[in-house]
Amino acid sequence: MTTWTNRYLAAVMRAVPEQTRDDLDAELRSTIDDAVAARTDGGEPQEDAERAVLTELGHPERLAAASVDRPLHLLGPSVYLDWRRVLRMLLMLVLPLAAIGTALVRILAGASAGEVLGGTLATTITLGMHLLVWTTLLFVVIERTGRGPDRSDWSLEALPEPRPDGGGRSDLIATLIFLATVVGAAVWDRFVGFVQIDGAPLPLLSPELWPVWILLPPAVLAAAAFAVALHRAPGWTRSLAAANTLLSVLVAGAVLALLAGGSLLNAEAFELLAEDEDSVRTTVVVGSALGTVVISGWSILDGWRKARSRTGR
Amino acid sequence: MSHADVTFSVHLQELRRGTIVLGCLRLLDRPDYGYRLLEQLQQHGLAVDGNTLYPLLRRLEKQGFLTSEWQAADPRPRKFYRTSEAGEELAEALEADWRRLTAAVDSLTEES
Q1: Which structural domain range is residue B52 located in?
Q2: What residues of A are in the B interface, CB distance below 8 Å?
Q3: Out of A25-39, A146-160, B53-67, which region has the weakest mean confidence (pLDDT)?
Q4: What is the mean pLDDT of chain A?
Q5: How far is B30 from chain A (nearest CA, A)?
Q6: Cβ neighbour number for residue A311 with a 10 Å cutoff
Q7: Which one of A31, A80, A107, A214 has the lowest number of neighbouring Cβ atoms within 10 Å?
Q8: Where are the domains of chain A?
């Protein structure tokens, strides 16, 4: 036995879990020995025989993966479709919003066209990368821990009801990631700052409001709980539509009240960023209010529409 | 190798895959170790690469169709595999299916 076999086996053992190493090492060693012996008995030199046998065994990591039955892919067929759907939904939902938001901030700050374009592009690409990496990581964990859909035993009865109405697993995951993004954005705005003046954060949302943000976790938790309840339920029902209405009205009401009171947005930021402070401020406030009304209104109507189409009337 | 050759051999491989399992389960009626099993399969006309066979043996053991035992031998101990009761049942089922498939394939060529 030369160093070739030791080198090969060391490469195999690096790629298998500790508890199988001794057994696999001993087995492969004896097998390689046997194969080499068969060749040297035929008159082949020891080293040539060993090289030929090891080369035939192929890539050590491939052999290791096959020996311990480990997949040779990042995402398998059981989760691929869900991964693609979640990612597509997130990118289509979050990226345009982020692009518009950052572009708006830069325009308000009086940046040049080039700066607006470059900065927006950079932010959007970075955000897209984050979404891609974390979503993929989440699904890799689902795949490796075997928490994905069971492939071995299933029955027609065990199949989920068809849900064309946004109650599936990927919708749930997308909602939860979206909520996490909202919380992250609020925290980021306050402590790091989307806009920075001399390295210090200039929050776009009013800093006096920060203690009121204590309301954010319960609101996000309520939204998350609702998403989970929707996922568990066989589909949209009247009570879920009613809960969705209540939740939307509460959130929209809070946002509108704060906007009207002038306490949601940071007045200081407007003074520093915009030349024509008042008109910019009015535009942003009216725009935000309109956006809030349209989004919550659509969500409420959508819930009732789906509940109705499901119950068949 | 051209693309057509590759897909050609992939189809052949797929057809053969199950026969290696059946060969192992039948031959390991009597306990044997990896390399000799490889040779025996070859002698029976079921040629298989070591990097396919050795992982397969471990997998079949994990699934309970084979049992294994280390036996002292010269120059080093060898791992002997043997077909379990579940493995025998599997072999019978595979063989019955194989015969059914042979008849089915025969009937295809008869008709055409």
Answers
A1: 3-111
A2: 23-24, 26-31, 33-35, 38, 56-58, 62-63, 66-69
A3: A146-160
A4: 80
A5: 18
A6: 11
A7: A214
A8: 3-67, 75-149, 161-168+185-313
- What CATH number is attached to the domain comprising B85? 1.10.10.10
Query: What distance in Å separates residue A69's CA from the closest CA in chain B?
Result: 7
* B window 34-73, beta carbon within 8 A of A: 34-36, 39, 49-52, 54-55, 58-59, 62, 70
pLDDT per residue as tens digits for the range B48-102: 999 999 999 999 999 999 999 998 877 778 999 999 999 999 999 999 999 999 9
Q: How far is A28 from chain B (nearest CA, A)?
A: 8
Alpha helices in chain B (DSSP H): 3-27, 34-43, 50-62, 85-111
Asked if residue A167 lies in contact with residue A233, where contact means CB atoms within 8 angstroms, the answer is yes
For residue B39, which residues of chain A lie inside 8 Å, CB to CB? Answer: 38
In this prediction, residue B88 carries a pLDDT of 95
Residues forming a β-bridge with B70: B79
- Percent of all residues in chain A with a pLDDT value above 70, rounded to a whole number: 87
What domain count does chain B have?
A: 1
CA distance A6 to chain B (A): 16
Kindly report, residue by residue over A248-268, the tens digit of the pLDDT: 888 888 888 777 777 777 777
Tokens for A117, please give them.
């374009």
Residue of chain B whose alpha carbon sits nearest to that of A24: B58
Q: How far apart are CA A253 and CA A84, in angstroms?
A: 35
